[in-house]
């Protein structure tokens, strides 16, 4: 090997990532001792390889996403899906960044309609003692309650951050958000009142969890937009 | 096959995780939460690198674990849980890129140091590695992300439906592009 025949791209790359087999690696290293151009290039590639192997310094947001995952699992249990329908469901799901206050209002309207329906059913037949422990379709009531608590805690944190940022956002931009939050809070208050009078009704608690989730989603979108 | 480039929580399957898997397979959501917290950061990192966008990555992490919950009863411990979840995540991301109308096979067509887009972004000299990776075309980024997770050229090629030689070439070109981005 001479200085006039430089290493190929594959040689340089496999030298840089350490995958070049022997005896080719020994020959290539011998070339590097005599060729400044190839040495500089392989060194630059080695720096890139090394940098890519360093763990990302960003904190993972995975922990804060667990309530969403759990709720989706619970919802999937409530409404059994045909095999493969999860992919279709995903395609239909509204992307986070385009969901709007209008969507929030529509969902709350839906929740309130569901609330009326739940009340009618409750009036027709009071829930049995078994229903106190297990929600519809086998979802444990404690799981629904855990979701409510998780969303409530996250909403509180996001609201605190929002209050700190309120001064820099401006009243015009804040008005639609405040209006949507008020609609959701009204639905939450009505659901809490309904639960107080019918504490063992699992459907009411699921609706409450969905309301809190809507609130958290709205606050997250506001934060990301900011 | 396990990730080789980073210390991943998924590589440290132990008795506690095995026990959590058994209980989760019986429908224990609390056990599944243990699995989630042990493995979600690595799954998020894979998704984030493959799609190059935080919001998309978050949605995909949800999809991965909802799917994992559905498929967990079929998991037979023949492979480590981490390997199984990684494969599930990688396949879902590739499927997502295709279904979203994006070209999972959009690669770097020319020598990256000669391409105008690369020169244009090279002025941003303080890019961190993840931000630089996010600027690669979908296909090249996916190849690089999977390689960083320890997949071989053949495995990447099989998952993405491309030739092994293409996977190798795209990895090399992706590194070249990153070299210009990171060292500008």
What's the Cα radius of gyration of chain A?
Answer: 28 Å
Q: Work out the strand percent of chain A.
A: under 5%
Q: Would you identify the regions of chain A where 5 or more consecutive residues have pLDDT less than 50?
A: 79-103, 123-138
Number of helices of chain B: 9
The largest inter-chain interface, given as chain pair and residues per side, is: A-B, 41 and 42 residues
Radius of gyration of chain B: 17 Å
Write up what this structure looks like.
The complex is a heterodimer of chains A (226) and B (184). By secondary structure, chain A is mostly helical. Chain A is 72% helix and 0% strand. Chain A is built from nine helices and no strands. In chain A, α6 runs antiparallel to α9. The longest helix of chain A is centred in the last third of the chain and has 29 residues. Chain B folds into two domains: 91 residues, RNA polymerase sigma factor, region 2, helix turn helix motif (Rna Polymerase Sigma Factor, Chain: A, Orthogonal Bundle); 67 residues, Winged helix-like DNA-binding domain superfamily/Winged helix DNA-binding domain (Arc Repressor Mutant, subunit A), CATH 1.10.10.10. The two termini of chain B are 34 Å apart. Chain B contains nine helices and no strands. In chain B, 51% of the residues are buried. The N terminus of chain B is likely disordered. Chain B is mainly α and 184 residues long. The longest helix of chain B has 23 residues. The radius of gyration of chain B is 17 Å and the shape is elongated. The chains are: A mainly alpha (226), B mainly alpha (184). At the A-B interface, α1, α3, α4 and α5 of A face α2, α3, α4, α6 and α9 of B.
